[in-house]
């Protein structure tokens, strides 16, 4: 897959398009990835992770279970399991609307589907991890730009999670490594941002690790 953006991209970004218009544009780009390419890109992502992110310090990693045309995390999750690294995935918070909990995810974890038809573990409070105890969080996104700005699906779930992590860092808590995951074709020139947006310092794609 080419790392170049579509020919439509500059004209879209140079105009005053809403975040929703940009979001839909990049969702369409992401949806254009064929099933065969998805598998290829997932394996390349794993290789890039092994080269650029893997460290003996990694013990508790949060990431997402792939939905639809998102960059597939299944090979990466299997790799982490093989190394006995604890994997945590998000579930919708049952009481705090718009928030996420992160639950330990293993091969034997009983699963369900949430209101968005996304697979998630059945909630068990014994397997919930406080954010401060995570080493690394791999964050899904619709697109990102050259400054680390991120645009998600619009529900605000990860915006709230990233904001909570950002507050932890200001309280001298152990810093959590935040890394966006995306196809190369999800990179934009520039994205609008709001006061609640938390920029990423790194984004991992199948071809490289971006640092901002």
TrEMBL record:
Q: Kindly state which reaction or reactions the protein catalyses.
A: (6S)-5-formyl-5,6,7,8-tetrahydrofolate + ATP = (6R)-5,10-methenyltetrahydrofolate + ADP + phosphate
What is its cofactor?
Answer: Mg(2+)
The record's top EC class is ligase
GO molecular function annotations of the record: 5-formyltetrahydrofolate cyclo-ligase activity
Per UniProt, the keywords (alphabetical) are: ATP-binding, Ligase, Magnesium, Metal-binding, Nucleotide-binding
Q: Please state the Enzyme Commission number of this protein.
A: 6.3.3.2
- Family of this protein: Belongs to the 5-formyltetrahydrofolate cyclo-ligase family.
Put simply, this protein is called: 5-formyltetrahydrofolate cyclo-ligase
What are the top taxonomic ranks of the organism? Bacteria, Pseudomonadati, Pseudomonadota, Gammaproteobacteria, Alteromonadales
